[in-house]
Amino acid sequence: NNMFKGILRIKPLSAQLIHDTKVLKRMSPYVIIKVGDTVFRTNPSIEGHLTPSWSEEYVFDLDGPIYEVEFQVKHEAIFGDALIGTATLNLGEILRYTPCSRFSQIQLQDR
Fold this sequence. Notes:
By secondary structure, this protein is mostly beta strands. The protein is built from 1 helix and 6 strands, in the order ββββββα.
């Protein structure tokens, strides 16, 4: 049963990227987080390039069947943002113990 009720807080901390989408300049990566129908986007990590960090925390109000947390890391660009990688976490695995505070390492897959 994947019915969840409560608050899920997600705070992307940092990444170690291996896929550089820029040739001449540094990347400005950001993260898109999707839980159910709710989507949040971090601010770009201007100084981060291949080791970006973020400080925002996002709160998701869970009330129903939610199965996954989806992540996309993209680079902000003038002529269209470039996908760096994606990852999906099973919410049931994350919330196995309630309440919990947990750090998860996510391996992003190149496009």
